[in-house]
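Exercise 3.2. Students should predict the tertiary structure of the chain below and write it as structure tokens, then compare their answer with the key that follows.

Predict this chain's 3D structure.
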Amino acid sequence: MFYSSLILYAPLLSRGLVITIGVWALSALISTTIGIIFGVVSKLPTMIGQICAPPILCFVFLWRAVPLYVQLLIAYFVLPDLLGINLSPIAASIISLSLCSSAYVTTIVRSGISSIPNGQWDAAACAGLNNIQTMRYIIFPQAIRVIAPIMVNEYESLIKSTALLSVLGVPELTKIGKNIIAHYLNPIPVWGIIVLIYLLLSGCLMLLSRMLDGKYSQKPADNI
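Answer key:
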């Protein structure tokens, strides 16, 4: 029964899976870019860092405090009225996922940078490097050993969050599954297949996280 259901529903579910992975990949790319920039800038021991840190921390608090479900509704129903623009469900979803995830990525990057001893900054200064050069060549390359495995966990959380996009009508995996159930009235195999797909996706990311964790835990950070 399960095999026959898989053959029957696979074409429809594959379309939803493509949209799920596409939205997830683009959101992950945007959130990683924003999170790294915000995390690095807010930890710079310079005037720029001191000025930018408070608003960045406010951004992190706001987007972590508000549930993603509420952010999706605001992005799709409120933001277009405020800006006078039209947003498709997918565009609103990518904006919400990216901003929400970037707040967590910023926190991860900040924590990774904070894990590097302050003596590294002093040693780099003695070597004639300025603060930006120290961050680029000394601090961040070491912090990435801490950041990388945790980032994969954030990506795993992000791909599971895509299931909420059905509230906006985005034809992702969960939404397609609901449509199939409404048509065929056969929920058990459909949900079983969807659960299996999410397990496979999360399993791949979890394996990647463990590989990175093992790789970096075996290589202590080089001191300057």
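Discussion points: Confidence is low (pLDDT under 50) at residues 220-224. Helices lie at 2-42, 47-65, 68-83, 89-114, 119-126, 131-161, 173-184, 187-217.
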